[in-house]
């Protein structure tokens, strides 16, 4: 059994929607790691981010590649990780 954690993130710089979704994922992963979480299940309404992290989509954009690399380095610190797409209406 686990706990559900919610976190809000405010960006103080201009970012595309996809960059903002990666920022939210990375902030959430850092938050979970700071609480010594070992297993995490993440839900996102960003089909692009979910599919890039899950290696279904290729990442061509240089900036998003950097976000993906950072996200993957954080993900590797968890014993168990899953990222699931959910429709925006259900998020």
From TrEMBL:
Record-linked Pfam families: RVT_3
GO molecular function: nucleic acid binding; RNA-DNA hybrid ribonuclease activity
Domain RNase H type-1 span(s) in chain numbering: 1-91
Descriptive protein name: RNase H type-1 domain-containing protein
């Amino acid at each position: 059994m686990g706990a559900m954690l919610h976190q809000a993130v405010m960006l103080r710089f201009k970012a595309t929607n996809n960059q903002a979704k990666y920022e939210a994922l990375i902030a959430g992963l850092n938050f979970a790691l700071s609480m010594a979480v070992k297993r995490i299940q993440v839900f996102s309404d960003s089909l692009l981010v979910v599919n890039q992290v899950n290696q279904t989509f290729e990442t061509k954009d240089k900036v998003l590649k950097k976000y993906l690399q950072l996200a993957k380095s954080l993900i590797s610190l968890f014993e168990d990780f899953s990222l699931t797409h959910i429709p925006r209406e259900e998020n």
